[in-house]
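User: Here's a chain of 212 residues. Predict its fold as tokens.
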Amino acid sequence: MNSALASIGKNLLLIAIVVLSAFNFFYGWFNWTELLKIQLIFGLAYIFLSCYEVLNASYKAALPVQRFSYFTFSLVALRILKASIFVTFALMLYTSGSRAKYLYVICLIIALTELIVLLIKYKKGLCFISIYANYLLFAESRLKKIFASEIEIIEFRHEIFYFVKKDKKAFQIKLIHIDDKATFLVAINEWINRNNAPVSKESKEKIAKALA
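Assistant: Prediction complete.
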């Protein structure tokens, strides 16, 4: 089973438990204890598949390329925000006073999954930047590639690299999120030179100063 199948499986599980809980709201097929057990079983399966989906990306970390951990504050904030939103929904449902409160467990499962996935990504170093021959691979919430041939200009200011693509989309690499800054600077400078990537004159001087 690969990460794509795990993603499909976890989403189908989530849809199934939401639909089952919603129908139970109208038809009362199960009492609260029975429904809770079913929700927990589906929830554990959902958490397992979510973790498998993330961990299955770890093979990319084993490839013989230059890889640098890149765990950003924005990623942490996003995961915590999503978890907080689902916890809030859970509290609203639980205090609603209607049978809709039985859906609160699903919200808590999703919130818990967000936090577990965040912890796994941090512990396993699954958020990173890999430097390949002619492109950079960003692995955060999803994988992104930037090919050297796509770059219009590279700027370096305040320890931040700005990669502006020809379609005007821009990507940033903030050195504050990279542990081994010195090694990364050498590696990214070699990558830039090897691919003749366009860098502004001012940025070239700043990169050279940072390398000195």
